[in-house]
Amino acid sequence: MIKRKMWKSGLLYIGIMVFALVTLLPIVLLLTNSLMSGREIVSRYSMDITIFNVLNTEYIKVGDESFHFVEMAFLPDYITFHQYFKLFFNSPEYLRLFWNSVILCVPIVVGQCIISVPAAYAFERLQWKYKEFLFYIYIIVMLMPTQVLLVPHYLLAEMVTLPPYLAIILPGIFSPLGVFLLRQQLKGFPHECLEAAQVDGAAHGTILYHIVLPNMKPSVAVLVVITFADYWNIVDQAIVFIKNAFDEPMSIALSKVMQNDTSMFFAMACFYIVPIVVLFMACRDYISQELSFVGVKN
């Protein structure tokens, strides 16, 4: 019986490791390819003049155009840091795209935290008319795809003549996702502590910022990571609202870089994923606490 459990645990461990390696494969490929020279990247990934028959090395024509198989490799023939040097020192236009993404994401993340915490507390602890009805509307709006809401957002932004960045930032700040997540966590908060604080004469603001908020740091950290990842990879809203290429975030500009400067694409892509990786590593302890709390509550 013990041996059978050991075998099951071993197979489960191996399965998890294989799944983790497969998941990390694109990131490893991205990192190693960013160390290739521009010529090697073009030779490996560009569409060339023929498709090679693997068995007899004959050429296969496809209409007027022909191609060759992509030569994916984990290790470059020659390691070079020229793309990174060009990115950080010779290409301010690429760094501008990075800062455009920062300017879009940071206000949304900060605004989400400022709005969502008191709103979730008000939905959970305060008694007022039509509270649950309004919360159901929050849920319905949260479940709607972004593409469905783009048209009313665009019409409203045009009506009040909002600048492009504000037209993206304001709906992001008031997104219902944060309120929903934090209210669900407040449901598991010990109400006896809050009632005892009210008996002692503490106001709702005092209870929120001195009792509830310090104990909700893991939930807020999860909200920060989710919101930042969502708007760091923004595509649809940026395409609709931002008309000037100089103001586009890096999530939009990467596809254009791939077409115009292939040698820079992998270096920019590696640089692009750094902020979300750093943020996740900074919040991982809080995220672990949140997952443990959910497991205990369930």
Topology diagram in text:
Elements: H1 2-33, H2 38-45, E1 51-52, E2 59-60, H3 82-90, H4 92-125, H5 131-143, H6 146-159, H7 164-173, H8 176-186, H9 191-199, H10 204-215, H11 217-232, H12 236-241, H13 250-260, H14 262-297
Antiparallel strand pairs: 1-2
Helix pairs in contact: 1-14, 3-14, 4-7, 4-8, 4-11, 5-8, 8-11, 9-10, 11-14, 13-14
Please supply descriptive tags for the structure shown above.
298 residues; two-stranded antiparallel ribbon; 2 strands
Written overview of the protein:
This protein has a two-stranded antiparallel sheet. It contains 14 helices and 2 strands, in the order ααββαααααααααααα. The protein has helices spanning 2-33, 38-45, 82-90, 92-125, 131-143, 146-159, 164-173, 176-186, 191-199, 204-215, 217-232, 236-241, 250-260, 262-297; strands at 51-52, 59-60. With 298 residues, the protein is mainly alpha-helical. α3 crosses α14 (262-297), α5 packs across α8 and α11 (217-232) runs antiparallel to α14. The chain is globular and about 70 Å long.
